Amino acid sequence: MAFVAPFKVMVDATISFDLSIDNSDLETFVIDRSSVDAALGTTDGRINSAADFKAVVDYVVTVGEGLDVRTQGNMITFKAEQDMFPGYGTYAVPFYISQFRPDPPFTLRFDLSEIDVTSDEFTIDDYIEGVEFMLQQSIDSGAMLGAVQQRIELQTDFSHRMMDEVESGVSRLVDADMEEASTRLQAFQTQKQLALQSLQIANSQPQNILSLFN
């Protein structure tokens, strides 16, 4: 494996790979920003050389796994530690290591503030690729925010409609109570009028009887 150029593992990015030695089950190892800084004693997540990458892999793959990582210039080789598996003698130990998988697929090797076209650390193509990646990230983030805003607006509209329905329901209940009260008042007034008429009729009866004797 060739180490092509320095790169930076961003805070939200990871690099993973699978490893199997001596026909063991595949085990996945993950390199993230914290493991890079811990392995190299740095704080910027930068891997500047093949030796740095070896140090990070050695840090992530715990002692006893049997992985032997070696570098020569920009080349990195991986193999099983033969001494840990004496049963194979001089024969190679069954060994498998997958490709290294960045997540997200493209990992920025610089921040926007680090762009310097006068430096030869990165090429113009590297900067263009990085800026395009940042732009796409911004577009994706904007789309996500737009979707969230739309959901908030829908929820707000639903809440307003619900409040209108509640107010309408309360108004209908109040109107119904007023109609019932009005009906009861009319019934009471009718009863009162009937009572007065009955009283008037009762009071007039003795006078009618007395008029018979006059």
From TrEMBL:
<protein>
    <recommendedName>
        <fullName>Flagellin C-terminal domain-containing protein</fullName>
    </recommendedName>
</protein>
<dbReference type="InterPro" id="IPR046358">
    <property type="entry name" value="Flagellin_C"/>
</dbReference>
<comment type="similarity">
    <text>Belongs to the bacterial flagellin family.</text>
</comment>
<keyword id="KW-0975">Bacterial flagellum</keyword>
<dbReference type="GO" id="GO:0005198">
    <property type="term" value="F:structural molecule activity"/>
</dbReference>
<dbReference type="Pfam" id="PF00700">
    <property type="entry name" value="Flagellin_C"/>
</dbReference>
<dbReference type="InterPro" id="IPR001492">
    <property type="entry name" value="Flagellin"/>
</dbReference>
<dbReference type="GO" id="GO:0009288">
    <property type="term" value="C:bacterial-type flagellum"/>
</dbReference>
<feature type="domain" description="Flagellin C-terminal">
    <location>
        <begin position="137"/>
        <end position="213"/>
    </location>
</feature>
